[in-house]
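Figure 6 in text form: structure in, sequence out.
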């Protein structure tokens, strides 16, 4: 988080009138922002709120203390989702999303216009057609793919309105369809929903379903490869080495360095590797300098 944003939140704690307003009649997002301000001033994480929580299962569960503990658990879970909307978004979208519990913040390139811990959503309206000729917009979509497990494009205009806009700019429908096809090809099939309120509801539901890990219809994007994934790919690229033999090689030698230094006799000790295969694997690591 930037120093400017941290300072802004700390300054909020010096405004008793604003604090009172948020407590008494603020939106959920404003109250969450106030909680974050307090936590940041104390240099705490939201998870630290759970330190003193405990449930007594030996007595009737319906107690005031257990109700308070559950409320804290719910708040910590909601804070952990990091539901945010960019402050440069249309004021009506900011209002709709704030009412749904999204904090209004500054989102960086690659975060999208609406974001959570796992999701980034780029909202387009009048800027959809200009993005056709703006490579920066396409780079933003690429950045979204790197930053979030799930990313989407939501267009708050109808297809007919988009076509009319394209016609007014002298753009053929064929060109427009080609652009939409390109978005689909790179993994961003746009969702057209011209009602901003409905679009806000959709984005909130997308975030909640994915953050809850019960999204059902969505398949999580593969996570970034770990070092062992590259190691396994290298091993399975060796002659006659499949998954089972690869596991045996890892168990026997532990590292690629040890495997590379193994003799033919050492390799033949591994179940499933005969002399011919051992010689071929040995030759891979001893075929001379890389060129």
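Output sequence:
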């Amino acid at each position: 988080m930037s120093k400017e944003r941290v300072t802004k939140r700390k300054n909020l704690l010096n405004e008793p009138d604003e604090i009172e307003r948020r407590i008494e009649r603020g939106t959920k997002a404003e109250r969450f922002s106030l909680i974050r301000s307090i936590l940041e001033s104390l240099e705490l994480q939201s998870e630290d709120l759970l330190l003193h929580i405990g449930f007594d299962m030996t007595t009737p569960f319906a107690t005031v203390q257990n109700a308070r503990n559950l409320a804290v658990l719910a708040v910590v879970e909601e804070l952990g989702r990091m539901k945010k909307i960019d402050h440069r978004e249309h004021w009506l979208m900011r209002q709709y999303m704030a009412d749904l519990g999204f904090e209004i913040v500054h989102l960086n390139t690659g975060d999208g216009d609406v974001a959570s811990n796992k999701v980034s959503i780029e909202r387009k309206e009048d800027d959809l057609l200009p993005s056709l000729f703006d490579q920066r917009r396409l780079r933003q979509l690429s950045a979204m793919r790197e930053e979030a497990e799930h990313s989407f494009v939501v267009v708050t205009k109808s297809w007919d309105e988009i076509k009319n806009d394209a016609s007014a700019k002298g753009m053929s429908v064929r060109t427009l369809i080609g652009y939409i096809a390109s978005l689909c090809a790179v993994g961003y099939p746009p969702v057209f929903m011209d009602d901003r309120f409905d679009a806000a509801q959709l984005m909130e539901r997308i975030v909640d379903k994915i953050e809850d890990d019960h999204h059902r219809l969505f398949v999580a994007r593969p996570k970034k490869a770990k070092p062992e994934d590259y190691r396994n790919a290298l091993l399975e690229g060796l002659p006659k080495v499949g998954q089972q033999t690869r596991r045996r090689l890892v168990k026997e030698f532990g590292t690629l360095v040890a495997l590379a230094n193994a003799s033919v006799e050492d390799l033949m000790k591994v179940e499933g590797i005969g002399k011919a295969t051992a010689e071929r694997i040995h030759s891979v690591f001893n075929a001379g300098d890389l060129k």
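Caption detail: The longest strand covers residues 119-124.
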